Amino acid sequence: MKIGLGLYRHMLSRENYDFARQAGCTHVVIHLVDYFRGGNANPNNNQPTGGKYGYWGVAGDPDDAIWSARELKRIRSEIEDAGLILEAIENLDPATWYDVILGGPRRDEQIERIAAIVRNMGEAGIPTLGYNFSIAGVCGRVSGPWGRGGAVTVGSDGPLDEPLANGTVWNMIYDPHATGQTPSASYDELWKRLEFFLQRIIPVAEQAGVRLAAHPDDPPMPSMRRQPRLVYQPDMYQRLIDVVPSTSNALEFCVGTISEMREGSVYDAVDRYSRQGKIAYVHLRNITGKVPEYRETFIDEGDVDMVRVLGLLHANSFEGVVIPDHTPQMTCAAPWHSGMAHTIGFIQGVLATLPKRPKQGTKQV
Ligand SMILES: [Mn+2]
Known about the structure:
Layout: E1 2-7, H1 14-23, E2 27-30, H2 69-81, E3 85-90, H3 94-102, H4 107-124, E4 128-131, E5 142-144, E6 153-157, E7 168-169, E8 172-173, H5 187-208, E9 211-214, E10 223-224, E11 227-228, H6 234-243, E12 249-254, H7 255-260, H8 266-275, E13 279-284, E14 286-290, E15 293-297, H9 306-315, E16 321-324, H10 335-353
Parallel strand pairs: 1-2, 1-16, 2-3, 3-4, 4-9, 9-12, 12-13, 13-16
Antiparallel strand pairs: 5-6, 6-15, 7-8, 10-11, 14-15
The structure holds manganese (II) ion.
């Protein structure tokens, strides 16, 4: 197992790459979508929240060339110059694929655009594309000083039933001039949209040598903003990977989100999906509670036994990357960085206790 650091778009700098190396990471996962653009900037570099009812920033990149093979290669070589490996790009820009998620009129041209991005990633040697096929996205969360020692963290205090505004998807705004509301989709319709997406993109990903990795719905409620959710119980992950059986159809396995789910057990889910070799990479985060009421916590203080989770991954020969997901903000000059360093240190400590495996290719005597 390897340890990585997830970096937001505005954090892609040599300084942060050096920080990752110093903390003990060998890999990074990068976001190219700037969730903070056009408002909701967070000086603490933490995850965007936007409050319970608000949306994040404006989708769409003024510099769309960042998704070109040339730019992706440039970013990869900057990361490699710092001594790290670029494992994944996390999330597509909502402006790139809103009609794929919403089943709108530009769906087919947007599918072509995603296919081009996947090919660019293959050409640039970036092996994984994390995505979250969700209409309402990560939304409806509240924040407060609920972590140990009053550290500010996020959570959910109940459902969010206000309708989805037109011109928004995935909790970002793709058309600031739109008015009115988006009609509710049915659960079956949402699955049909996902199937269309996977049936068209997975063959492209196979050709390009890229793995798609699905994040579950966070918070994992059956609906948010009157729109259905796709993966809000552990079993629904199986349905997603069975749509198109392929090594390129894999999971961005979020331990925190799965622990927030009302059904099943997070340990069973870790065991089941790692045993199948379906986990592309892991988001590690602890929580307390279940939807609709839960809170994110420090890695060592929530409901989930992280030693058991990492032990199961190891026992099932998971050799991929684990990254800290969100962490509470620590009270100091660098709230985000200290939260990450704390979580990385915890993971290192656990990994150091796992039984060593014989190196591949070496003869056992
Ligand atoms: Mn996650």
